[in-house]
Design a protein that fits this description.
The complex is a heterodimer of chains A (293) and B (315). Chain A is an alpha+beta fold. Chain A is built from 7 helices and 16 strands. Chain B is built from 13 helices and 2 strands, in the order H-H-H-E-E-H-H-H-H-H-H-H-H-H-H. Chain B has a two-stranded antiparallel ribbon with strand order 1-2. Classes of the chains: A alpha+beta (293), B mainly alpha (315).
Chain lengths: 293, 315
């Protein structure tokens, strides 16, 4: 196993090439310098082989650190928050580049990060860890669409969570009474089927209505409520809606028209397909930790 | 920093750009005059107490015996012959001085580096103990250098505790003595310069980022290999200043090698000869010449040393 350190830890007294060749030389590899050059070519820095690390930019140093670890062909490469020191734009570029390099060299990357989006972008498998223990392990889509615990539901993206007793079981769904509102959740997407349960739905799965939608099977409807806050985020608009008895919920609406379609204080209803709900194994309320690929 | 700003001032490019600078940014031209003003006391001091004596020393070294005057009187002249004479006459003492200084520097490095490493790296987690250890390194400075050396003379003398103890154990022959030998002089030099070696090395090891060592072991280097290839090169600036701070004064030292302290007539160093020529024999040209030869030799040795070690791996 080799490591890409958060601080890169490139040896400041050696050239970039000597840094990359360090591990190969310690192992007594015969053509260490040639293989180090190959490693630098992989991260497209072979033209800077003679420089000192301090003469490189943060992104370049990051790539040298990566090359220095990769040239040893470890079974597992541990990346300890490798992109943490880079600015957002460079970080996005490096994420794509890291994935390309990983595909090229075919090594297993163990990527530790606090950036949930980075974890979801890069990982084949994510382990969400809380207080040293794995809360849930799975593909990014699986973790996002079907979180098992409140911690995962809130750590990867946002979730609207509701707690209440299961009052009925009809066919493939359970019905939960949340402060008088009946919310259906598919049985196969719920961890618990009886008693007090916490259920949730992702903000972008919600639809916003300015008139009460007609009740239909397979759709949960809440409302009326009042728009409490409207924030324009570019791709979408986030609405915070106060629902009497249910608290505040969050809703993402794609910006298909210019600007928000509903103003603050408007009376609205929200609905979502029953299939999008999920039921958790624990109650709401947890704190933060880190994710691992 | 001061020299950087000073050097930048005559550069028209820098000064020219400054005219367009916003009001809040101070004008480099004005700043440089402030720098000059601040440098003035230092420059005046150097001029008065370094340059003037140096010129005077060179003039003295070129004086010749006054043929009409008394013995020991000299007139101004250009007597270059003193130089080859002095170098030839004192060639063994010159070599001995640098030999002692070299031995003391190597010993002080062998003692000072582990000490500095221990204080700067291993004691990092205990700041209070670290501060205490540093104080202990500096503690000898609180007592006069002469007194400490004199104390060692007592301790190491034939009747002193060390030799009495060793004699009692019959380890040494009965007529063995330590003071007055080259070993005692080198011991004294080493002892007196250990703090000068330790502190600069400590300063560079104290800043050593331990993650480099972690990276070294991650890249298959053994602890010894990591030490040789990472720790030592990164502490080299401290080693260079420590060795210079030891070697230069040790080569010119005249206390340890003096008969009154740890040496004897057989251990005389250049400093002792200069002292004798200046203060006892009154032969100023020879003393001045010897001083200049010592200075030139040190400059040469240090120059070669820094050229080899200094530029190669310093960050």
């Amino acid at each position: 196993m080799n490591t890409v350190f958060q601080s890169y830890a490139l040896f400041p007294h050696m050239t970039v090439l000597d840094n990359v060749a360090f591990g190969l030389r310690r192992q007594g590899v015969a053509d260490a310098l040639n293989r180090a050059r190959e490693g630098l070519r992989l991260v497209q820095l072979d033209h800077l082989a003679g420089r000192r690390p301090s003469q490189l930019s943060g992104g370049q140093q990051q790539r040298v650190a990566l090359a220095r670890a990769i040239v040893n062909r470890p079974a597992v490469l541990l990346l300890d928050e490798p992109l943490g020191a880079l600015d957002l734009k460079l970080r996005r570029e490096m994420q794509v580049e890291l994935k390309d390099i990983q595909n090229e060299v075919g090594l297993t990357f163990l990527h530790v990060t606090h950036d949930q989006e980075e974890a979801m972008t890069m990982a084949d498998t994510i382990a969400v860890m809380n207080k040293g223990e794995i809360e849930q392990l799975g593909a990014p889509e699986e973790l996002y669409e079907l979180p098992r615990t409140a911690f995962v539901a809130n750590f990867l993206g946002q979730s609207n969570l509701f707690t209440g007793p299961v009052v009925a079981s009809k066919g493939s769904t359970i019905v939960v009474d949340v402060a008088g509102a009946k919310i259906e959740v598919p049985k196969e997407r719920a961890q618990r089927l009886a008693g007090q349960v916490t259920i949730g739905v992702r903000p972008e799965k919600l639809l916003l209505h300015t008139t009460a939608p007609a009740a239909q099977s397979g759709v949960n409807v809440l409302g009326p409520g009042r728009v409490h806050d409207v924030s324009f985020t570019g791709v979408s608009t986030q609405y915070l809606i106060d629902l009497p008895g249910l608290g505040s919920i969050s809703l993402f609406a794609q910006n298909m028209v210019f600007g928000p379609v509903v103003q603050e204080g408007a009376e609205v209803w929200v609905s979502w397909s029953v299939d999008h709900g999920f039921g958790l194994a624990d109650g709401p309320g947890s704190d933060s930790s880190e994710t691992v690929e | 920093m001061a020299f950087g700003a000073f050097g930048a001032a005559p550069n028209p490019g820098v000064a020219g750009r400054a005219f367009g600078a916003p009001a809040g940014d101070s004008n480099p031209r004005r700043r440089s005059s402030v720098v000059l003003l601040l440098l003035l006391p230092g420059l005046a001091y150097l001029g008065l107490f370094f340059l003037v004596p140096l010129v005077s020393l060179v003039i003295t070294s070129l004086q010749m015996p006054d043929l009409n005057g008394d013995f020991g009187e000299y007139t101004y002249g250009l007597n270059w012959q003193t130089y080859p004479d002095v170098i030839w006459n004192y060639r063994f003492i010159i070599l001995r001085s640098f030999g002692y200084a070299l031995a003391a520097t190597i010993l002080a490095l062998a003692i000072g580096y582990p000490l500095a490493y221990f204080i700067g790296v291993k004691l990092r987690r205990f700041p209070l103990v670290q501060a205490l250890a540093l104080t202990l390194v500096i503690a000898p400075f609180f007592i006069s250098f002469l007194l400490r050396t004199l104390a060692w003379k007592q301790i190491l003398s034939d009747e002193g505790p060390v030799l009495s103890f060793l004699n009692a154990l019959s380890i040494l022959p009965p007529d063995a003595h330590f003071t007055g030998t080259p070993g005692a002089v080198i011991f004294g030099l080493t002892y007196n310069f250990i703090p000068f070696m330790t502190l600069p090395i400590y300063a560079s090891l104290e800043r050593l980022d331990l993650r480099y060592l972690e990276a070294g072991s991650d890249l298959y280097a053994s602890p010894a290999s990591t030490f040789a290839r990472v720790t030592v090169p990164l502490s080299l600036p401290g080693v260079v200043s420590g060795t210079l701070l030891t070697f230069i004064p040790a080569a010119g030292d005249y206390v340890n090698a003096s008969r009154d302290f740890l040496g004897s007539t057989e251990t005389a160093m250049i400093g002792n000869v200069v002292e004798a020529q200046f203060l006892q024999l009154g032969n100023y040209p020879v003393a001045a010449t010897l001083s200049i030869v010592l200075m030139a030799a040190i400059l040469l040795i240090v120059g070669v040393y820094v050229a080899i070690v200094g530029t190669k791996d310093l960050v």
